[in-house]
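Supplementary Text 2. Reproducibility record for the structural model of the 199-residue chain.

All settings were left at their defaults, and a single model was retained for analysis rather than an ensemble. We include the record here because the model underlies the residue-level annotations in Supplementary Table 4.
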Amino acid sequence: MSEISTNNQQIILASSSATRISDLKEHFKFFRTVKHNADESKIKQKNSHLNYRDLVLLLAKNKAESVKNQFPDGIIIASDQILVCKNIIINKPLSIKKAKENLKFIMGKEHQLLSAIYVIYKKNSYFSEVKKAKLIFKTITEKNLNLYLNENGETALSSVGSYKIEDNEKYKFIEVLSGDLETIKGFPLTNFLKKWRKD
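Retained model, structure tokens:
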């Protein structure tokens, strides 16, 4: 897809995710990445009453709003993703041991990935959306699970599901039941880009 003209507007990605940076580079030649100031754990704790769709959108919104005063004329793009299996939210693991526990929990079960994008333009809400995908992490042997974690420790610790769909071509451990690639990757850009082109 061709790069989009921004008429010299400052594009801010409120994320340090390598995947989101790479995806945004496909559409914008120039943009800046900043670390958001949202406390994701606290937001989840305070808003446990929300449905999953509203919660993931709130997380993305808080990320964007946490930096909007630094860039009053900018286009701030933030995103978030949650994984839900058996009505339990699986968070990013803090250790390889926990990553293994998470993968064993979702193994053989259907799980959902909900991905949200929230965009602020000139300090006002400009675009927001939540998209959903359904997947199954296939049952694999303990040996293959350990092999994957040994080879992909950084991925395991940086992803809500402790896996990345980009690895599926090699490991073939994910069956996609519904949803598109951008939703599974956690950065649903397409409809925002369509709106930006029209405006």
